[in-house]
Each structure stands twice: as structure tokens, then as C-alpha cells.
Amino acid sequence: MMKCYDCMDAEKDIEAACVCIVCGKGLCVDHAKELELPVSIGKPPHVQRLPKGLPRLMCSYCLGHTIEEGFD
């Protein structure tokens, strides 16, 4: 079973629940960060943004280096 990369740095033995979509590190529930990517449908000029985006899980390092405003 894959172990949480961040927990291993803290010398803990916790199983990973997911992987970061950017770097692929295994992450436990405590270290996984959720980023909701907006979703638009339609063709210009009739484009609509859906009220709920796509949830994506990332590590804190990758989330900290991602420009969230770039997805809007």
C-alpha cells in the first residue's frame, strides 16, 4: 500500500488515500488539499459556467504554487 509522502517526512506510517494530480505524491486525508476547477459549457458567445466545479486533490506544495485565479 502507498504511504503518505508528507507523513513519511515526519516519520509517521500513514497510508495514502489519494495522489496529488500535479506531482503524483501519495497523500493521506490530512495532507490532501482540494482545489475546485471551474467548468464552462457551451460555445461562444453562449458560454455558461456550471455552479459546481470539478474537485481536484493536490499536495500543499503544488497548491501553493498554483495560481487559482488563472482558472477563473
How does this model look, in words?
By secondary structure, this protein is α+β, with helices and mostly antiparallel strands. It has helices spanning 5-9, 60-64; strands at residues 18-19, 26-27, 33-37, 40-41, 48-49, 54-58. It has a two-stranded antiparallel sheet with strand order 1-2. A hairpin with a 6-residue loop joins β4 (40-41) and β5 (48-49). The chain is elongated. The termini are far apart.
Determine the oligomeric state from the structure: single chain
- In terms of DSSP E residues, the strand content is 25-35%
Q: Count the beta strands.
A: 6
**Outline type:** elongated
Radius of gyration (Å): 16 Å
Low-confidence stretches: none
Could you tell me how far the N terminus lies from the C terminus, measured between alpha carbons in angstroms?
36 Å
How many H/I helical runs? 2
Please provide the ordered H/E string of secondary-structure elements: HEEEEEEH
Question: What structural class do helix, strand and pairing data support?
Answer: alpha+beta
Percent of residues in helices comes to 10-25%
How do the strands of the widest beta sheet line up side by side? 1-2
Largest sheet: 2 strands, antiparallel
Mean pLDDT: 89
Strand-helix topology:
Layout lengths: L4 H5 L8 E2 L6 E2 L5 E5 L2 E2 L6 E2 L4 E5 L1 H5 L8
Antiparallel strand pairs: 1-2, 3-6, 4-5
What are the main properties of this structure?
alpha+beta; 2 helices
In short, what is this structure?
The protein has 72 residues and is of the alpha+beta class. The chain has two helices and six strands; from the N terminus they run αββββββα.
